[in-house]
Amino acid sequence: MKKWNWREGQRPQRRTGAGQYRGWRRGQRSTQEEQWYGQTESRPFRASRRASTAAPGLPSAVFPELPGFYFDPEKNRYFRLLPGHNNCNPLTKEKLQEKEREKERQKMLAEDEKLRKKAPRRGLNSSLVLQKRHLGLVQLHSYCRQVHEVKVSGMRRHKLEIQSTDNSNPNTDNFRLIVADSACERVFTVNDVSHGGCKYGIMSFSSSSRGSLSVQMCDNLYFTNRKVNSICWASVNYPDSHVLLCLVGAADTPGCVSLLPASLFSNSNPDQPGMLCSFKISSAWSCAWCLNPQFDKTFSTGLSHRVILKHAETGRTQTYSTGSDVLAQQFAQRVPVLFNGCRSGEIFSIDLRQRGRRDHNWKASRFHQESAITSVRVLQDENYLLAADMLGQIKLWDVRVTKPVQEYKGHYNQHAYLPVHVCEPEGLLMAVGQDCYTRVWSLQDGHLLRTIPSPYPSANDLIPSVVFSSKIGGCRGLPGLLMAVKHDLYYYPYNTDYQEVGEKSNAG
């Protein structure tokens, strides 16, 4: 029997083979190198044991957050985030946010393409809302809002073909602005030209008894190398007989405000009148036309630290000095009052009947928002005014007490000149954000009814321009939304029985 040796009892266990030892050392070194590279050259390194064993379908919230790193669930790796764009590693927070927004946009587009869309909210459909109304379970204002929400949620995108006499030259220039006349029979368009400048013209709309909408581009298109800042329709000889344009100066060419007859854009009338009025200015940000009979044929322009009122025929001019650039304007109709929105966030009104203009006494009312005002809209009840600013805030103001009474949340804007659109017959408010989403609110209670994605990825030069009307194409027109983005024109009907002519012919 072998004696127990105390030296052997303390002998360490047998060492592993040299290959195993080197492999263990090599594996440890590669892991350290991966982590080191991940912190310097943004090479990916694998997640921790807890993260790597998690199911790939789980959200990224189950993975530990590391400051300055992003975890990709598909690749099961961490990537370092850089503060700005880098040619070697373009992975930044901005790129990741843009990727997530594009995924969300594609998801919303796929949802809109479904023939049977789900209800905007659970249990909300037209038959159920009507049944609750008959039973007295829903109040009148809630019933109206729910009906509008059901209709807005059912709007589907239809691409319109723009017909022209020159079919060999399709429109390949991006839309920048579309502005409809009071009857929504014609839409004035401004397109950016690829070689610089812009072109503008008029599209006419008509609806058929079959429930389809057709678009015809007028013959004449005008080109200019200057940027168009603001547009409004003007009623000189008859309603919407002219178009008022604010053109920015370029190089040696000064800016100007031009009043053009609408017949100038069509070749049907050989005796076209010339330009009615045009005067040179340094820079014009906004314009508005007065429809009050006391100051007939009067228009205004908002300049840098000035407001100019001018009579189109006599040329009589009144100038008001302001403390900031006037970016938005609109006249009230029942009383001759002009509302102005400034870059400083100030909103003030000018009563045209007042003669004294000393020490800002001519300002009938004044109130402020937190950022530059991009749009002002006077409601039919002219005691209320809508104003939007560059912080994305849209507020409904009571002019009598100069206090906001409603706010419409969800709009996104940082620095763009974006208008708001009101359709009071339908009780809707619309605005296109800088993120290229069109949002629709209930005008009465500020409830966000729908968010409509753009057909194209979001970009600063591809922000859609929209028009909403209860009668597109005239008194017998169709209700809905017109959206111009890139070089395409889309129609979102406000009813469910709309069909395009092509769809009907294919069905027949």
From TrEMBL:
Keywords, ordered alphabetically: Repeat, WD repeat
Claim: Cytoplasm is one of the keywords in the record: no
A GO CC term assigned to this protein in UniProt: Cul4-RING E3 ubiquitin ligase complex
InterPro entries: CUL4-DDB1_E3_ligase_receptor, WD40/YVTN_repeat-like_dom_sf, WD40_repeat_dom_sf
Polar residues bias spans: 29-42
Pfam families: Beta-prop_DCAF4
Residue ranges, annotated region (Disordered): 1-56, 96-117
Keyword Repeat: yes
Biased composition (Basic and acidic residues): 1-11, 96-115
Protein name: Uncharacterized protein
Naturally occurring in which organism (per UniProt): Tetraodon nigroviridis
Organism classification: Eukaryota, Metazoa, Chordata, Craniata, Vertebrata
